């Protein structure tokens, strides 16, 4: 077969996106085909830079062109990305493609740490990311990003987010004296959340991560009514007492009055790893609870995050974790969250 753009497209029409179940050509994911002698270059535009199947798709493209066109070709796919969204232009956060709420239903399960490290990992992949600290009564995001004591500026009547690790960050902790208890009634807290959505210059983002407070109260209802959440991630730990509350969080999002798709369940503190014995795993809170919660509710299981002392120390000091096992776990989590978001967006786009 002669080497033409049409031949290349025909070959690549045999490569399917494994999640959207359609071929890359139909999905308009193949761009900028260049042919020079025996060298073929083209862009593969994935739905997220954090795509966990990037290497598999890249290899499939190379094999397809060699098989259907010429086995002697030098095939060079360039893996790019354009984060998908089904959000319509709206007054609230119009330039944010996907808004992902991170919830637990219970305090003390490391939800904020998961939210921050999820955001960091998505940003490391090349995505534009922001974090909104919606935990008005217990804001920990300033500490986790190392931004304690800093104050945001105002430009044209809107708050400018602080930036850490390339991530835009807003928290009530930036606006009150450090250590001061926030004693507000529900309507005041809800008003603050609304202002974080409407009076902050978030700009263009691929993902805005909302760190929700524990429970299922006023703030959650405010977010459901005022902020167009694209999907939710539920964080739990393995033991029964955490699972019971995590199930309430799942049910809250699925309630018709809220109706937010649940992207899946992540199990935090799944097992303990001593820093000096990375091969050891101690299941101090039990085992398999997060997987069972996901299975029982027909939800994706997004992965498990280990409990590691050096990761806790990094979080307390506002630093990104550098432990290899933890980094791998968060890389898998970010890939799965981005994947489930892309699947949801793809399903909505194909339905429309």
Largest sheet: 8 strands, mixed
Strand order across the largest sheet? 10-11-7-12-6-13-14-15
Overall mean pLDDT stands at 90
Q: CATH superfamily membership of the largest domain, which one?
A: P-loop containing nucleotide triphosphate hydrolases
* The CATH class of the largest domain: Alpha Beta
Report how far apart the termini are.
Answer: 37 Å
Spans with pLDDT under 50 lasting ≥5 residues? none
Outline: globular
Strand content: 15-25%
How many separate structural domains? Answer: 2
Share of residues in helices: 25-40%
Itemize the secondary structure elements and their pairings.
Layout (H helix, E strand, L loop, with lengths): L4 H8 L3 E2 L4 E2 L6 E7 L2 E8 L7 H15 L5 E8 L14 E8 L7 H14 L4 E5 L7 H4 L9 E2 L2 E2 L2 E3 L2 E5 L14 H13 L6 E7 L6 H9 L4 E6 L3 H15 L7 E11 L16 H8 L4 E7 L1 H8 L7 H28 L1
Parallel strand pairs: 4-5, 6-12, 6-13, 7-11, 7-12, 13-14, 14-15
Antiparallel strand pairs: 1-2, 3-4, 8-9, 10-11
Helix pairs in contact: 1-2, 3-10, 5-6
Overview of this protein structure:
With 352 residues, the protein is of the alpha/beta class. The protein folds into two domains: 77 residues, Fe-S cluster assembly (FSCA) (GMP Synthetase, Chain A, domain 3), CATH 3.30.300.130; 256 residues, Rossmann fold. It is 35% helix and 24% strand. The strands form four sheets. It has an eight-stranded mixed sheet, with helices on both faces. The chain has a three-stranded mixed sheet with strand order 3-4-5, covered by helices on one side. α1 packs across α2, α3 packs across α10 and α5 packs parallel to α6. The longest helix is centred in the last third of the chain and has 28 residues. The protein is globular and about 70 Å long. The two termini are 37 Å apart.
């Amino acid at each position: 077969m002669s080497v033409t753009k049409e031949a290349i497209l025909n070959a690549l029409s045999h490569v399917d996106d494994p999640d959207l179940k359609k071929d890359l050509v139909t999905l308009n994911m193949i761009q900028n085909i260049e042919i020079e002698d025996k060298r073929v270059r083209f862009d593969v535009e994935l739905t997220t830079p954090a795509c966990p199947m990037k290497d598999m798709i890249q290899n499939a493209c190379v094999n397809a062109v060699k098989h259907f066109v010429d086995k002697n070709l030098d095939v060079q796919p360039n893996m790019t990305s354009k984060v998908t969204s089904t959000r319509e232009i709206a007054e609230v956060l119009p330039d944010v493609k996907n808004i992902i709420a991170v919830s637990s239903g219970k305090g003390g399960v490391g939800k904020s740490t998961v939210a921050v490290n999820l955001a960091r990992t998505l940003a490391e992949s090349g995505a534009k990311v922001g974090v909104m600290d919606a935990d008005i009564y217990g804001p920990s995001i300033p500490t986790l990003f190392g931004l304690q004591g800093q104050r945001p500026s105002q430009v044209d009547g809107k708050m400018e987010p602080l930036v850490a690790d390339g991530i835009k960050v807003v928290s009530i902790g930036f606006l009150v004296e450090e250590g001061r208890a926030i004693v507000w009634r529900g309507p005041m807290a809800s008003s603050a959340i609304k202002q974080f959505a409407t009076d902050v210059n978030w700009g263009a983002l691929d993902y805005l991560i909302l760190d929700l407070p524990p429970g299922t109260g006023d703030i959650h209802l405010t977010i459901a009514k005022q902020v167009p959440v694209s999907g939710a991630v539920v964080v739990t730990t393995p033991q029964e007492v955490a699972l019971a509350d995590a199930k309430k969080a799942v049910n809250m999002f699925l309630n018709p009055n809220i109706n937010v798709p649940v992207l899946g369940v992540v199990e935090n503190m799944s097992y303990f790893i001593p820093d000096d014995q990375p091969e050891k795993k101690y299941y101090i809170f039990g085992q398999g609870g997060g997987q069972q919660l996901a299975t029982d509710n027909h939800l994706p299981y997004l992965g498990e995050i280990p409990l590691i002392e050096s990761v806790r120390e990094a979080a307390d000091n506002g630093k990104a974790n550098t432990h290899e096992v933890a980094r791998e776990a968060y890389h898998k989590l970010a890939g799965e969250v981005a994947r489930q978001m892309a699947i949801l967006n793809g399903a909505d786009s194909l339905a429309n």
